Description:
By secondary structure, this protein is mostly helical. It has one domain (10-131). 66% of the residues lie in helices and 3% in strands.
Amino acid sequence: MVRFVWYDTAQLPKIRKAAERNEWFTAIVLSATQLERHSYWIIREYLEYRRIESRLVDLLIEPLHLFQFAECLLAMKAIDERECQTIKEINKARNFFIHRRMREKFKRGREAREAYSSLVDAAIKILEEKLQAKTAMVGS
């Protein structure tokens, strides 16, 4: 399979720095957006490699979101069940941060670290090991 060339805008270091600073909103939202972005390209590449018409590929994957991308990656065997569940948990946390109601409170301090630290670490691991997220990706 020929790898597409795309450039990351150094989001992994930003995610790590946000986690180190306990900036969980930034760490979770960036993790989710990067998982979605890289999942999109992996799935697109997979479909195009199988010679599916580019316009059909667009119709199939454009409306998808992170939850559905996780299911697609699992079906492609690009990730395992545990990683699929982790991506869904990150999506849920991201949705909480973005769509929070006024009466819902953010977790803070140790409670936030316990809830989000391992999630962010898992997101980075999936990005690096399964979705090949790097500062720059060059075709091979």
